[in-house]
Hints:
Subcellular location: Cytoplasm
Family: Belongs to the class-I aminoacyl-tRNA synthetase family. TyrS type 1 subfamily.
Subunit structure: Homodimer.
Helix content: 40-55%
Strand content: 5-15%
Binding site for ATP: 238
Number of strands: 13
Largest sheet: 6 strands, mixed
Strand order of the largest sheet: 1-6-5-2-3-4
Binding site for L-tyrosine: 32, 167, 171
Amino acid sequence: MNFIEELRWRGMLHDMTPGTEEQLQKEMTAGYIGFDPTAASLHIGNLATIMLLVHLQRAGHKPFALVGGATGMIGDPSGRSTERDYLSEDTLRYNQEGIRSQLTRFLNFDSGENAAVMVNNYDWFKGILFLDFLREAGQHITVNYMVAKDSVKKRLETGLSFMEFSYQLLQGYDFYWLYKNKGVRLQMGGSDQWGNITTGTELIRRKEGGQTDLREEHQAFALTTPLITKSDGTKFGKSAGGNIWLDPALTSPYQFYQFWLNTADADCPRLIRVFTLLQKEEIEELERQHAEAPHLRLLQKAIAKDVTIRVHSEAGYELAVKASEVLFGKATLDTLRSIKVDEFDVIFEGVPQTEISAEELANSKDITDLLSTASRGEVYASKGEAKRAIAQNAVSVNKMKIADPAAPVALEWLQDRYVLISKGKKNHLLKKV
């Protein structure tokens, strides 16, 4: 597998320094990407750059994942108009552990010579005195060079602290340290990181080869991938509730699966190339089938399946599919009966719930009464509204259509305490207390 060619056909190559492709074709090359622990979990925006490391390793090269325990204390100004909130050391340590565990799902840390390696830049920065750092790194990079970077220029009008201004020098030193101590020759990242990454290649060149020495053994390389945006130009990776996280405690497998399932048709050709491991022929065949029957959403389902399994496991994917069938698909009462106790809360997370007492239940003379008066108007505001919905064939109880507004209240309680009311495409739970 040719790493650069793989990135090209997938649309994942934005820019690279001269000689990068030749270096990667010549020998196994160590490359890294940095992840600052600004949150306890990575999100799907990070997943695009994680895939760079995945493809690098699949091509026989050695991936390094750097968790920025030191740089996370400062925060990268790239793409921001204001300074980041300062995080405590305890918070940063907690976040680092979350990121470490997530990266192990994507990279093979036990594959011999090209096994992935995880490093933390706090390990080398913690022992460097400020004056030593200025002599070690500061003397080689001019202020003019640093100010010329887009990430700095865009912030000069709104204000940029010296702390954030120094970020690119710290990231540049990361590259130099890994180059010197771990033999890392390549740094990768999103296209907004180009300025920070090339500061590292420049620092390596100046410290190792002098101002004019461009000999091959003193070269380091840079490669970036395009930032992912939607077809309408808006930022990719957020939903109405915020970021789509890789941590199931923050974004459940069901929510994660639904995000991909709801992708616009126009976005699918790019996303399936960037986020899945499907091969070119498979993708082109899926695109052909999708074009013939777009209502089947074959591309969306293929993306959702591939990414959900790799992020959340096969079991997480199967639970997400079951939840989708229950809430939006053709599930039956038997499907509802098959839901395990530990799955129930996951599937129905976010579904409105109304508690109903034994007395309210006993006083319900028919199904209309139950859906309106007994539930205190939280399911249907009035008996008239409930009757109209039933007449329009828009009401189901436990996935069974209600045809008679005067039907008796004969309910099967799921998990001995819930009844699922489907109001058209919306869902509501009655909870017996």
